[in-house]
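#onboarding

Welcome to the new folks! Below is a worked example of what a typical request in this channel looks like: someone posts a single protein sequence, and someone else replies with the predicted structure as tokens. Don't worry about understanding the tokens yet, we'll cover that in week two.

Example request:
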Amino acid sequence: MSAGAGDPLSPAARQLCDAMAAGFPGPGDAAALRAAAVPGPRGPQVASVYDTSAADVPVRVYDPAPGAGGRPLVVFLHGGGWVMCGLDTHDALCRRLAAASGAVVVSADYRLAPEHPWPAAADDALTVLLWARSEAPALACAAERVVVAGDSSGGNLAAVTALRAPGLVAGQLLFYPPLDASAATGSVAAYGTGYFHTAAHMAWYWDCYGGDPVHPHVSPLRAPDAELAGLPRTLIVLADCDVLRDEGLAYARRLGAAGVDCAVQLHPGVFHGFLGLPLPAGASALAAAAGWVAAT
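Example response:
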């Protein structure tokens, strides 16, 4: 698709979108998609960055100010359709979040589908959360200030982890998450093609991931009201031109109706994945998210 007067993407976003889509494989080949998911430019310097293990789940810990006490602790779950990406592809984003928020960030290298279908990734995410809480004193963080965060499929895992660990999470930070495995929304119809992240890709990712599509630990949007009412403060960051937009908005409405402190940031003129791109909306979304984490 070419930029034009009626294009909902900004000119800069359209240029990036078309360039990325031209080199990105279609759905169906996990190996090809993984090969295409390469790290971007390196993020900012962070005082301490090291790899370790959280009860057999590999993690990378980003500490922007070793020795400082009582800080928030973010468990970050990367995107990639549960099929691709890992610690390296999201290294820059985690560096930016740690540096901007002052929080320690623990990035989880959970098992990937289709080799490890649901609930493998969700179980790994919960394992890392429990490990992070237990390690909070050693990391000079406050166990009562643990946030689960993630982008795209990682946002799904963060939402699921918050549902599975009532009372153990102080906040959930969800960047354009898939929340319903059988969603057929207006944003799917409007942005299913021509906006990089296609409806066909999303359907294939769900197929690879597996699980019962109506189970709330697969599709958090289908969780009962009573479970939603126990969720912590929430920030949902969405791209307007994204097949997943309406799921995020629907989840925010349900959380608000359940009495949860839920804020939404809907960024116009951008597409799925904009947080890690050289666009003004990405920088402003990261800055706002970092401020939200610091206040948790």
